[in-house]
Specification:
Elements: H1 2-5, E1 31-34, H2 41-44, H3 48-54, E2 57-60, H4 68-81, E3 86-89
Parallel strand pairs: 1-2, 2-3
Protein name: CobW/HypB/UreG nucleotide-binding domain-containing protein
InterPro entries: cDPG_synthetase-like, CobW/HypB/UreG_nucleotide-bd, P-loop_NTPase
Amino acid sequence: SEAEKDTKGCDVILWDGGNNDFPFYKPDLMVTVVDPHRAGHELKYYPGEVTLRLANVVVINKMDSAAPEDIQTVRDSIEKVAPGATVIDGVSPIKVDNPSVIKGKKVLVVEDGPTLTT
């Protein structure tokens, strides 16, 4: 598109990470989401540590369903490799548009990652 050709004329450029490990340009703000259900993986597996080191902001997600010791492990990892990052505590509540439709029924929720489905 024309906007892609003329970045001087753009106010905002959005990048959807999709399955890419890193953006194709240097962002003004790098946000990384960590999962305390996989505590320690943020440093153990690629590209976890790299994205954590690059982060300006780290969101600790799923805090409503993670064990306190796993949340602390993730906090310790953040402090170790990204001490200047802003840390945001997050949750992943399951919401239903019309709860009456499933009231009294067995429901299987399939989330986008394996940590809430195993």
